Amino acid sequence: MDELDFSSATPRPAAPGAPPPPAAAVYKPAVALEFFRAAGQLEEIPGGKTFFQENDKPGGFFSGGSRMYLLLDGDIGLMAKGRFVGIIKPGDIFGEIAMLARAPRTATAMAKTQCKVLSLDEKQFTMALQKKPEFALMMMAIMVQRLRQAVARSAEAGGAPAAVAEREAVFGKKDLAAFAQEINPVRMEKGKVIMKAGDTGVFMYVVHSGKVAISIGDKVVERVGPGSVFGEMALVDNAARAAGAVAEADSELIMVKRADFLTLIQSKPQFGSSILRTIAERIRAAS
């Protein structure tokens, strides 16, 4: 694989199961190749064979629902709801959202020609992050871009979730306690506005105690409890806040500056993995 070099690859339009159209400065195919090489499994797939099927659930023996892929050679077609939706080309990553979110596939991926890929399951993904933690920030930037697009589409359509989601905790009790020793939690009284949509993002927040409501417009879309994080999007892409947050109960929040956020990604691969999973779940919910 040493002869492979995707560093000059041209970004292509996104399709379900593939990354959104990233700016060249965001998606660096050479970084992706190094990451997959660190722990990935090389596979050769004949033309006509599927990598995974739409609605496959993660963890199934034949589903491929717990793997993500980097295409090295060949062409892959994507089908969703009975129609053709896009092509994966060499240098593209696909299947990452379903793996990270541990959710069913939203499309079928089929090899149009003989294909060569590197694949990762969750365990291999974590191993690769330990070797190449910078990949996590690159993927966050791509996924945050996709999430912002999904949120904007939902807002334009006036959509609202059928049920308000409870965001999964990133930190367990032990890790949360250790984190609180490094950065003192700040008390927020019930009703306190923590951030507003359109604000410049200076901090990411970790809920130490209490509960926070996340809103887009005047609609609560998520509730965040102890061990969960919010406000990370603005730290990833340095863009304005996409949502607002209000303390629904007396709460204590750990406020993480961008420099500390980047340090955590570099030093704690599990932190990067958890943030990626949180963003992936939100993409699924917003879509």
Furnish the topology, listing elements before pairings.
Elements: H1 29-39, E1 41-45, E2 50-52, E3 67-73, E4 76-80, E5 83-88, E6 93-94, H2 96-101, E7 108-111, E8 115-121, H3 122-131, H4 134-157, E9 165-166, H5 173-182, E10 186-188, E11 193-195, E12 203-209, E13 212-216, E14 219-224, E15 229-230, H6 232-237, E16 244-247, E17 251-257, H7 258-267, H8 269-286
Parallel strand pairs: 9-14
Antiparallel strand pairs: 1-8, 2-7, 3-6, 3-8, 4-5, 4-7, 10-17, 11-16, 12-15, 12-17, 13-14, 13-16
Helix pairs in contact: 1-3, 4-8, 7-8
Structure commentary:
The protein is an alpha+beta fold and 287 residues long. It has helices spanning 29-39, 96-101, 122-131, 134-157, 173-182, 232-237, 258-267, 269-286; strands spanning 41-45, 50-52, 67-73, 76-80, 83-88, 93-94, 108-111, 115-121, 165-166, 186-188, 193-195, 203-209, 212-216, 219-224, 229-230, 244-247, 251-257. The protein folds into 2 domains: 29-132, Jelly Rolls (Sandwich), CATH 2.60.120.10; 150-286, Jelly Rolls (Sandwich). It has 8 helices and 17 strands. The strands form 4 sheets. A 5-stranded mixed sheet has the order 9-14-13-16-11, with no helix packed on it. It has a 4-stranded antiparallel sheet with strand order 1-8-3-6. Helix 7 (258-267) packs across helix 8. The two termini are 36 Å apart.
Overview features:
single chain; about 290 residues; alpha+beta; Jelly Rolls; 2 domains; five-stranded mixed beta sheet; four-stranded antiparallel beta sheet; 8 helices; about 35% helix; globular; disordered N terminus
